[in-house]
Write a structure and sequence with these properties.
With 278 residues, the chain is α/β, with parallel strands linked by helices. Helices cover 41% and strands 23% of the residues. The two termini are 35 Å apart. It binds zinc ion.
């Protein structure tokens, strides 16, 4: 057995609750032994994401401040406007990006999500290999890399076909070494061993990028949502409550849930560019 990041065979076992995980003693990568197929995602998304137009709008409003914050961080590292989002889901981030002057493209395995993107005029492809041979200025992977079986090969594939020296790649993954993860162990909100193949730490994410030929420009642990997002979320919930007449108690519960989510969600955010060959 080899490590999916550094290919070392110095692999040990570790546990999180009742889940047995693999651990690389060389680079500290941690991963789930089983791998989820693309077909599973496609099917699950069809089951889970039967969202109404209203639910789409609520999710869209709720995450507006988060998306604006991401775009303003990206702009500090690149002025380029060709953006590719890998694992673009329903294209909400891409929609906000194009409203901010970006030319956007998405990659998304879910047929349902791709159909929605097409409905709102966003071009998407099922897999990276389907993309036209084109370089992008900004490539984003929001909570995508933890689902990939061989992240270094995946990043190498992106780098060789779609990155120029000016391209920046922006990655967000759950932070497995965060305080909420350590406190709640297998009950942590983002410990999802059935979907997440990799459980990234700062070191393993840094290693994966370096091994794929990227130079890390920025890497921090953060909450994806600022307090502004929480207020955005309150607003969205208030709108929903008014429209759906779900009642004040249900609205409070939803707000409490969103605060709980805010406190527990800690992710790693990395920005990198292809290492110059000099
Ligand atoms: Zn390793």
């Amino acid at each position: 057995m080899t490590c999916p990041i550094c290919s070392s065979t110095a692999v040990d076992f570790c546990k999180n609750g009742s889940y047995a995980l693999h651990y690389c003693t060389q680079c500290t990568a941690i991963w789930t032994p089983t791998v989820v197929s693309t077909e599973y995602y496609s099917h699950q998304y069809q089951l889970v994401h039967q969202l109404s137009d209203f639910e789409h709008q609520r999710r869209y409003i709720e995450r507006l401040p988060e998306q604006w914050k991401l775009l303003s961080t990206i702009e500090q590292f690149s002025k380029g406007k060709n953006l590719l989002d890998i694992g673009c889901d329903f294209g909400h981030f891409l929609d906000i990006a194009r409203r901010n002057g970006y030319y956007v493209t998405g990659v998304e395995p879910s047929k349902t999500a791709r159909a929605y993107c097409s409905q709102i005029g966003i071009e998407t492809y099922k897999e990276i290999r389907d993309l036209p041979l084109k370089k992008y200025d900004v490539i984003t992977l929001w909570h995508c890399l933890e689902h990939i079986e061989f992240p270094v090969q995946f990043l190498l594939q992106i780098a060789s076909k779609h990155c120029s020296n000016e391209t920046i790649i922006c990655i967000r993954v759950p932070n497995y070494y965060s305080l909420p993860s350590k406190l709640f162990k297998s009950k942590w909100i983002w410990f999802q061993p059935k979907q997440h193949h990799l459980h990234f730490t700062k070191k393993s994410l840094h290693n994966a990028l370096e091994l794929a030929g990227f130079e890390v420009k920025f890497l921090q642990s953060q909450r994806p949502n600022s307090l502004k997002t929480i207020f955005g979320s309150f607003f969205a919930l208030a709108v929903e409550s008014n429209y759906s007449k779900r009642g004040i108690m249900a609205t409070f519960k939803a707000i409490a849930r969103s605060i709980w989510h805010y406190l527990n969600s800690v992710e790693l955010f990395a920005i990198a560019s292809v290492k110059s060959k000099n």
